[in-house]
Amino acid sequence: MRRFLMLAAGLSVWFVCVTAQAAVVRYLSQHPLPRKMGGGFCYIDVPHVHDFGPSDPRMYRQVDGQYYFVGDPAPFDYQGPRTAYYGPHPIVEANVQFGHPEYCYLQGPHYHWYAPPPQASFEMRGGAYWFTGTYEPVYYQERPHYVAVNEAYAPIVYARPVVDITLAPAAFHGEIVGGGPGWRAGVVVGAPPPPVVQVGVGINVGGPPSTVIVEHDNGRHRGWEKHEHERGGWRGPPPGRGGGWRGNPQPVARGGGWRGNPQPAPAGGGWRGGQPQPAHGGGGWRGGGGGGKPSHGGGWKR
Amino acid sequence: MRRSTTFVFCSILIGVALAGACGKKSAGGAAGAAAPAHVDGTTHTDAVLDAWKSAGLEPQGFAPVTPPPYVATYCERGTVGGVDATLCEYADDASVDRGQQQIRDEWARTGVHTGVVLRGKRTVLSAVDHELRDPNGKTINQLVQTFRKL
């Protein structure tokens, strides 16, 4: 009888144990570590598991139940190789096969740990790779959902790559955005009189040509300004403080948001003519200075 | 961690209960069983250990596991930089798949802070960081990268 009771007790414990499932979260490659785990970066670049989930799912794509980090690793103490990109592009990490096109929706300059393969449609210009191919329909279908990755980066202060957008390739279909989350580098194309360019003014394209100023704030990168008067966007004359090109009349307000339809800008990328900006012409002008949330930023954009 | 502790506790209880149920002490178990041998046609565990040493890693305490777990033909287990590593050689591809699945199932049951299971030919590397000795996974990644080159 005693043996029988002990056997029954053992089997009961065994049943409870085998039915209990531990938390196992699958990751496809490298990824940031949540702050509760001490922060930093996990450098395992093959499929692996942890007992914790991602800190911000907006920075991930789920592939067959595995989390794949699609963001910029730079703000997470990442110490591996970096390649600079500008604007949205297909994810071209050689070790990772999705079976279908997947896109990075980060706007503006950012890093990834992978470089594009030679056969991919990228051009290295102005310090970054620009995607010059054609976006698949899935890019537009999924953009409303995945563009939220930019909001995830909005409050993060870190050093983005410095990119000279005046060298944007003609075939780049994305938009030229004013700065970006945590990004204080400034690029001004045109000659606002006088050429007042402050640290962190972001990107402004438009206005009279002749001067190109690329500024960087020596690594301080204070990030997106929190004050509206410094947040970029077009601020017509007279010039105020903060950044932004202020030379020309206010562009036709067409709202912010991303409008990177597959409509190649005739002049390539942003409008950089010496004349007042076209009302509906190609390219685009985006207020600088960090511009607020990319999807809500002001400025003029074709 | 708590689940791991629970699992260990459960295992002890089960062991005690089964021993009590069976009454007399169990027989010799694996004593007398033939020592497992390496599998031809795949990367041997000692070759992996040599590669890790050449890569600057320091494998410690590796010894054959008898009987081999995870339906393997031959296994060795030890640590590298605080990471528990198990190398198993398999006789056929189907066993490799079953073995990998058993490892994943075990992790799902017991929990694991960080775990990697990777196949090279018919040799499987399983690396587990139970005690957060490799918080950013650099040691595990080095184990994996070296293993993949073999």
Distance between the termini of chain A: 84 Å
Major sheet attributes of chain B:
5 strands, antiparallel
User: Strand order within the widest sheet of chain B?
Assistant: 1-2-3-5-4
Mean pLDDT of chain A: 67
| Percentage of residues in strands of chain B | 15-25%
Low-confidence stretches of chain B: 12-31
Strand order of the largest sheet of chain A: 10-7-12-11
Question: Would you list the SSEs of chain A in sequence order as H and E?
Answer: HEEEEEEEEEEEEHHEEE
C-alpha-based Rg of chain B, rounded: 17 Å
Please write out the topology:
The complex is a heterodimer of chains A (302) and B (150).
Chain A: H1 2-19, E1 25-27, E2 31-32, E3 41-42, E4 48-50, E5 60-63, E6 66-69, E7 83-86, E8 89-90, E9 103-104, E10 109-112, E11 122-125, E12 128-131, H2 137-146, H3 149-153, E13 186-189, E14 203-205, E15 212-215
Parallel strand pairs in A: 7-12, 13-14
Antiparallel strand pairs in A: 1-4, 2-3, 5-6, 7-10, 8-9, 11-12, 13-15
Chain B: H1 2-22, H2 45-54, E1 59-64, E2 74-80, E3 83-89, H3 93-110, E4 114-120, E5 123-129, H4 138-148
Antiparallel strand pairs in B: 1-2, 2-3, 3-5, 4-5
General description of the model:
The complex is a heterodimer of chains A (302) and B (150). Chain A has helices spanning 2-19, 137-146, 149-153; strands at 25-27, 31-32, 41-42, 48-50, 60-63, 66-69, 83-86, 89-90, 103-104, 109-112, 122-125, 128-131, 186-189, 203-205, 212-215. Chain A has a domain at 25-176. Helices cover 11% and strands 16% of the residues of chain A. Chain A is α+β, with helices and mostly antiparallel strands and 302 residues long. Chain A is built from 3 helices and 15 strands. Chain B contains 4 helices and 5 strands; from the N terminus they run H-H-E-E-E-H-E-E-H. Chain B has a single domain, classed as Gyrase A, domain 2. Chain B is globular. The A-B interface holds A 2-4, 6-7, 9-11, 13-14, 16-18, 20-24, 33, 37-38, 40-51 and B 3-4, 6-7, 10-11, 13-14, 16-18, 20-21, 23, 104, 107-116, 118, 135-138, 140-141, 144, 148.
